[in-house]
User: Which sequence fits this backbone?
């Protein structure tokens, strides 16, 4: 499973991540990962391999949702955050629960946040939860 966190939309039958554009309140970037662009209006990234972007007006975004990946680690529910590693085998797991953080030897990273880097295969279960984003239809 590809670990996700952040806003996504459905377009052309694909799940695309939504990215803001610095100093531009009117447009958004839709990000697609794959060997070929899904349509001719997606432009190849200059910085990432197999990544394509399409610029749209914010007002044309008609559906969206926030994805957070969750997992079960040693019997405890944790949030799962992707780590940018070449093989994508690692993730950071987090909790706000001090008891869980201390029991599993997590590092206290700030306030009530506890985190630990693990191999994704160490998770007993992994799933995504979707929540509304910007009052858009979740489709």
Assistant:
């Amino acid at each position: 499973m590809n670990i996700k966190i952040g806003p996504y939309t459905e377009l052309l039958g694909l799940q695309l991540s939504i990215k803001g554009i610095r100093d531009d309140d009117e447009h958004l970037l839709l990000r697609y990962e794959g060997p070929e662009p899904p349509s001719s209006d997606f432009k190849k990234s200059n910085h990432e391999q197999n990544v394509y972007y399409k610029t749209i007006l914010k007002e044309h975004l008609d559906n969206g949702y926030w994805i957070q990946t969750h997992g079960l680690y040693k019997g405890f529910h944790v949030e799962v955050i992707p780590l940018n590693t070449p093989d994508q085998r690692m993730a950071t797991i987090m909790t706000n629960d001090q008891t869980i953080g201390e029991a599993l030897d997590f590092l206290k990273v700030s306030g009530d946040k506890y985190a630990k880097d693990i191999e994704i295969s160490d998770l007993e279960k992994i799933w995504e939860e979707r929540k509304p984003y910007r009052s858009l239809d979740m489709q």
Summary: DSSP finds one helix and eleven strands in the chain.
